[in-house]
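Running this now, will post back.
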Amino acid sequence: MPHFCHSLALLLFLAVACRAPLPHVEPPVVAAVESTPDHAPVVIVGGGLAGLITAYELQKRGIASHVLEASDVFGGRVQTAYYGDGLDGEFGMQEIWGDNPLLGVARELGVELDGDAEAPYSSMVIDGKFYPFVQETTEAYFESIFTSEELGRLRAWMAKAKELRAIALTEGLRSAEVKKLQMTTFANWVASFAMPKKVNDWLRLTIECELATDWESFSGAVGLLEFGVFLGEGEPNYHVKGGNSRLIQALVKAVPGKTLSATVTRIERVKGADGRIAATVSYLKGGKVSTITADRVVVAVPFFRLHQIEFAPGLSDEKWQAALTLTRGQYTVVHLLGNKTARRLWQINGESPFPVLTDGPLGVVYGVIRESPDTQPVEVFSLLIHGAAAGGFHMVPREMKVRELLDALDQLWPGLGREVVASHVYTYHPASIA
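Update: finished.
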């Protein structure tokens, strides 16, 4: 399941509905502090998850900061859509993995998590065949997909990957083996093991949704580091009760200094006679350019936003090289509001097979993550589309893409398309980072 919490880009979304959309009911929102001071010890540019966590950690250490966020909402790509009457779904970060420091922050803030942790592995559609994960153990799940020979080859690869990942985390590119891995694609590295096609497909489907692009587009080292949540016993994942936006609300409440709708345009750094560096941050708000001075500035914006900020003096070539070589992924989230009667189509002995990793237009079929109240006849059925399929939503009319999705769902669960009463599509900037 995708490590969506790695995506800290600002969210640019469009929501469209087919047939009769249900009314949106927003959750309780913590009011933002709109009074911007003339000076702050630290100015943080960007009020997404990265910026808010930075402000929170500084606050715990007694260091005051002020967050400038360009949009009219905090949280970036950690957002929950609330449709009213107990209906909601994530259109940003989908889950919090067990190895993510964010989990500790959520617990520190007293943010309640939603039920038990989920296993790291997913159901699969490989070569058109559906392999549901409804078994009681992961061992039984793997045995339902692979022959004993295939499973042995996968385990051998997992063991090698775990060993090499430990080296990558401790030595980095100082290791000749890791440096070699960085110079090849993840696809070519897996191909070097000459494993059966089904094993390769399982690995490909598992990693591509994590990085939101095809496995020819990122290095072996990048893929290996990302694959860590699936190695060994794998990392469990968690959801915030009531929607992941509740975590953002808790962070916003914990951080006092912040301003919305403030687009930073320039950051000037000057060294004083005493050798200390100070900065002046210019930002546009309400059609007026204002400034705030700071001892330090933390820039926590998506890489493509860096190009819209003037840095004086300019950033070093090394920093630009780091930004320009980041892997570009693409996500689109689709919420289908469907009748609860559709459960009979996809449940297996009363069990949910979700999430389901697929090739083609569907991406990750998250299905129903949270059940709606008994009084509500519909529920949110979620899809997380990635890579080229997600990019298509920027080029093709929404109604055509939604029809394509419904047709593909009918191939997996005949009749499911007829149960959908409304759809909402959330697309991201084409150069967002997974």
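The first helix runs from residue 49 to 60. More later if anyone needs it.
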